[in-house]
Request: fold
Amino acid sequence: MKIGELARQSGLTAHTIRYYERIGLLPRADRDHARQRDYDASILTWIEFLGRLKATGMPIRDMLRYAELRAGGAATEPERRRLLERHREAVRAQVATLQDCLLVLDGKIAGYVGSSERTDEHDAIHPEPIRNREHDVLRRRHRSGPAGARPARAR
Reply:
């Protein structure tokens, strides 16, 4: 398959495919008689896997390490497994953090449900505006002048 077709099927740009090949994330493509890249369809599975690693936040250096190990064959399987297990733990921690954040957002959104009714009730109970104590203190200071200043005498 030519690079344009691989780009269309994988969702990557041709530029990204060439970049991934140059840095070692993708194996070097065979070349046809016209010296154009000719990819085997099985590369799509590898590209999909790389996309999942990227989506889960795996750093490119770890993706490169995994690709290097993968090229090393079956003897590297234990190290590949360890790399993926470490990444899985990082993903689980990230998911737990996101779940906590989602709970906070859900609570905040629930607080806005019926907020117009709550505001109307609040206005009925407290017809006068609620004052900001700090604002009132600052306003009094401003009227009386700087601290320690004497009032002006009439002449």
